[in-house]
Amino acid sequence: MTEHVVKIADLNVRRPAFEIDGISLNLSRGSVVGFVGPNGAGKTTVIRTLLGLITPDSGDIEVLGHPAGAPEALARIGIVLDEPTAAPEWRVGSLGRHLAPFYPEWDERRFGQLLERLSVPRGQRVKQLSRGQGVKLSLAMALAQTPELLILDEPSSGLDPASRREIGDLIREFMVDPEHAVLFSTHITTDLDALADELIVIVGGRIEYHGALPDITEEFAMARGSGAVPTASVLGLQRSGAQWSALIRMVDSSEFGADVVVDAATIDDVVVHLAVEQKEVAA
Amino acid sequence: MIAAFTRLDLSSWFPRTQTLLTLAFVAAVGVLLPVPGMAIAAAATVTSLMVSAPFLGDERGRLDTLYGVLPISRRTVVIGRALAVLTYYAAASLLATAVTVAVALVRGSDLSIGLLLIAHAAALAFVGLSMALQLPVFFRIGYSRGRLIAYAPVFVIAGAGWLLQETGGLSAVQDALAGVPVVTLASVSAAVGVAGIGVAIVTAVRMYRTREV
């Protein structure tokens, strides 16, 4: 069994609307990896490329020991999108009958248990479900496949806190098996605080940070002040009138004077400030 | 896996009201139009129009994503869908034949096996050519961008008929075909249909292999 569930080397995808620029990364078994970045940063493109839905211009991708999109790999990946991928006319309870023939490890009993636990009514048609129920259905479908790798692409956007907690609980249960791994793309970075081991920040089609989640507070800091903009090493700067806030590396914090407040950076701080910087560089 | 995919695909679009209404239309043509064989022609025409239906469903239910991440090859998806369309055609043809025979019995009119044979063979030719024209386009660019192609086969047939009528070529064609044995005519038509289905599948597999969904 390979140590890495995903290996990406020098991935390039260039399309008129988006661009992935030389991404390389490995995802290990036993890890939950948060995947964050502003809208249009390339998160969904990377995920779709992993699944074989987009053909890269160059680069090597290996998922669970197979090329991206290989049926052998797809049979072992559970995928959760922001809407269920199911015919609107299908009834929730019949989904197992439709999908089980394609997944050798489909667990119908588990599917039923998950529907009950997540309060997704079996008798409803897919088109009758609320948005939250749709996401829960997607998660139940993904977990019933008994996957090794779970990929979630912004499943929690627009969900209430209780539903997001349910998703978090199921991910934690999934990760009891050390052979499993999760790639979790989200805009709600607080969902990652209690879940993720690693964090990938992608901005403008490039990985700006990939490391252990706790390390982000050791690596980055926020400097806040007013008046003159600092000349020290600033990774991203935001201004609001005379006030400014800057993302800096923790090692550079001593370069700022006593009138500048330096404190720990959150994931949101990192994403927002790197995105601002990237926009200004592009401009 | 192909059979499993065909079942999955049919379950996503066959039970829809509009699909069942098209079958009702085939039956209505058989009952209301007194010309034998019209229901069979209607079955082929609605099948041609229904080729686009599953692709519309793909976009509405995000099934293109589901099919893209199912652990099956894209070739399986294409062949499975072609079989789903042919299953619809078989159902429509069966219904058309039953209605045609029933109406002939009720009216006490003659219904030759030769007529049924030639009607079914011509219908198969039309369906095969229609699939050859539509499946590669829909598999390559999807329903939204390719929907006009759904009407192309019907327009081509209607246009050719009109042209033959206007140029006086229709009677020449009829005269030429009159001398050909029914079995030969039916065999050639059926072969054209089967070839069309083959071309549809081979071309669609090539088109869909690198499509980004």
TrEMBL record, chain B:
Which N-terminal stretch is annotated as signal sequence?
Answer: none
In which domain of life is the source organism classified? Bacteria
Q: Which spans are transmembrane here? A: 20-53, 82-105, 111-136, 148-164, 176-205
- Pfam family for this entry, one: ABC2_membrane_5
**Which of UniProt's keywords are assigned here?**
Membrane, Transmembrane, Transmembrane helix
Q: Return the protein name.
A: ABC-2 transporter permease
